[in-house]
Design a protein that fits this description.
The longest helix has 20 residues. The chain is built from four helices and 15 strands. About 30% of the residues are buried. Helix 2 packs across helix 3. The protein is about 20% helix and about 35% strand. It is globular, with a radius of gyration of 19 Å. Strand 2 and strand 3 form a beta hairpin. A six-stranded antiparallel beta barrel has the order 2-3-7-6-5-8. It has two domains: about 90 residues, Elongation Factor Tu (Ef-tu), domain 3, CATH 2.40.30.130; about 140 residues, Threonyl-trna Synthetase, Chain A, domain 2 (Threonyl-tRNA Synthetase, Chain A, domain 2). By secondary structure, it is an alpha+beta fold.
Length: about 240
């Protein structure tokens, strides 16, 4: 099991780790990591590992192994004998990319608060993101109105904090889960919640987020699309120069 340092501190940009092994596909496994693995609609982090000899290994992306507890760092090129089990390495994530994704991910939480409908899908990209909603009303609020509502929540600078509940508590409160297609992971005994403000938003989430909504900066609702009879896709984007 890889220790997930990003769970407790999404702002940690570097760390040291021990190499636990290199799998048959060339992926590097560490005892702990700051690299977020692909999951929940959020892409895996990229960055670098630096060996004891000073050699830098580019990490193209990060994913979970099949067991969903081990994190694999996927190098941009075969590492050969550059690292082996027991080696110590320094880790550094591509912070600018991660931070933009943190801002987008938090903005999507606000979008789910502004549009209180079941979420059928979503994704975080670099500077953009989307949520799909199960909603029959074709006359959804226009882009300018939605942008205004989101910007009001962002400007309020609500804190974004995490807390934990047990699997049993989550089962007793199914209304906390907004997503229809992706269920929060259970089985470990506890589930992490993201809370924005007192009651602006509260739902299970294992992704990375900013500490306050003010950090999101300016955003725009870029497009509202009809996807099927009752599915609506809403796309938003960060406004360049407003971080």
């Amino acid at each position: 099991m890889t220790i997930k340092l990003f769970i407790d501190d999404a702002y940690q940009k570097t760390c040291e780790a021990k190499v636990d092994g290199v799998n048959e596909r060339g992926g590097i496994i560490l005892d702990q990591t700051i690299f977020y693995p692909t999951g929940g609609g959020q892409p895996g982090d990229s960055g670098w590992l630096e060996t004891g000899s000073g050699e830098k290994i580019e990490i193209a992306t990060t994913v979970y192994d099949e067991d969903r507890t081990t994190i694999v760092h996927v190098p941009g090129a075969p590492v050969g004998s550059a690292v082996k089990s027991g080696d110590r390495v320094k880790c550094k994530i591509n912070w600018d990319v991660r931070y933009a994704r943190m801002r987008i991910h938090t903005a999507l939480h606000l979008l789910s608060a502004v549009l209180p409908y079941p979420v059928t899908g979503g994704s975080v990209s670099d500077g953009t993101g989307r949520l799909d909603f199960d909603i029959q009303d074709a006359n959804l609020a226009d882009k300018e109105e939605l942008t205004g509502k989101l910007q009001t929540l962002i400007a309020a600078n609500y804190p974004a904090t995490t807390e934990w509940i047990t699997d049993e508590e989550l089962a007793a409160n199914p209304g906390l889960v907004k997503t229809m297609s992706v269920k929060p992971p259970t089985g470990a005994g506890k589930v992490r919640l993201l809370r924005i403000g007192g009651d602006v938003d509260l739902q299970p989430c294992g992704g990375t987020h900013v500490l306050s909504t003010g950090e999101i900066g300016a955003i725009l609702i870029k497009k509202i699309e009809k996807k099927g009879r009752q599915n609506r896709r809403v796309r938003l984007a960060l406004v360049e120069g407003n971080s």
